[in-house]
Amino acid sequence: MIHLQQVSVVYPNGTRALSDIDLHIDRGEFAFITGASGSGKSTLLKLLYRDIVPTEGKVIVDGQDVAKLPPGRVPYLRRKVGVVFQDFRLLPDKTVWENVGFALDVLGASRREKHHKVPLALELVGLSPKAEAYPGQLSAGEQQRVCIARSLVNMPPVLLADEPTGNLDPGMSWEIVQLLDDIGERDTTVIMATHDQDMVDRMGKRVVQLVQGVVVRDVKEGGKYDAP
Amino acid sequence: MRLNTVEFLLRQSWEGIVRNGLISLAAITNIAVALMVLGAIVLTGANLEHMAALEAKAAVITVDLEDGADPADVQAELLADLRVDPKQTRFVSKDEALRQTAQRLGLHLPQSEPEVAADLLAELLGRNPLPNSFRVKTGDPQDIPAVAAQAEKIPGVAEVRYGQQVTEKLLTLAEGTKIAGLLVGLIMTGATLLIIGTTIRLTIYARRREIRIMQLVGATNWFIGIPFVIEGVWQGLGGALVAVAVLLPGYTYVQAYIDQNLEFLSLLYSPSILILFALVILGCGILFGALGSAISLRRYLQTV
User: How many separate domains does chain B show?
Assistant: First the structure.
């Protein structure tokens, strides 16, 4: 599903964010990307939804080389890659239902499609009763669930989560990770960046650890250690 | 396009206007003023040209003959100039000239008896001082000065006159208005585009979170941009409607006033011309609106 071959990213200000990364993630796999702040986690995810392009190397998502994607095709890549953020990025003047429906509106979905898919997504994240609430009336954990519902409503094969639990207390964080795991069970490839080592240990999933833009550890699900 | 999508795009554009109420109002006012100035210049230019054309059409060269010169000789010479329109060139004898003068002087005699007036005048003066003359018209009014100069050289011609000043001044004025109009028009268009562009940029800024989300969930730039272009079009259309609402009644009033009080002037006036004018102004408003927002969108979407 996702291949990175000798990928390096150097930002225009000269910062070297990633160096010579090789990574392969299968369809339906659940992987954590861990590392301290500034280790390159976000940069790695940004490559996958083509917010940035690699300075060197190849990034292939669902068979497409994202660096070679013409600008007009980028939106179609992003329809296959849902993204969840630490800061939720919800629209405060729209209800939960509208926030999730917004992702379908901008893809030109019909009313019927919307009324079919939005309730499904809300049910999946357990927010059906709060459909008419506004983001400001929700807890942080609930807001993150809305964000997840929005990124899932279009049923993308890949779900990226950039520090989705960064603003949540441990209890809520655990719920969100469980939710992402459930989603992973449905044949969605889930990649979650986090610096919460405890949580990663408890889940026992694949872990890719970054230190200063270099993969220092790649532990497959079940704890088998791969030399970097 | 699906109904839901059309509704979504229109609602987005409308929300933009409502959210930036005051700025939208400022943009609409600015477009209205710009289009009013442009419209007024276009109307003035068109009328000056119209008047110049009327004058030119009526312009004649008067060629006075010396006493004793043979009109037939002079006529032959005049018509040898191919720029002269033979059908509209007419001999006016001393007597006819006197009758016309008598009429013009308004001796308060019945119109049917100009000869009585002429005789009376001739008697009063003791003789007829007016020369035989030709009223010469040219095919193209532009040729008048050259033909006049040529006519002066013909033997037996005493004097050549033509109403050159009025026509030439009107034509110069119309030309000047056109150039000024073009310059002012360019500046105004630039300013209007800038204003609409700025307004749209503010809307874009206000909605940058929304735009970012749209981009992340895979909306195409086209889809993201359309509501902003529609918003620009609403503003352009609003401004144009205000401009038309001011210009048309205003022009109609001026036209009626001039018609009644300044008989020697006649302004263009026909419903079809005014409707065309209104449509052009509305079209300009819509075009400015779409273009202004498209320019600022292009810049924004490229940088993201």
Answer: 2
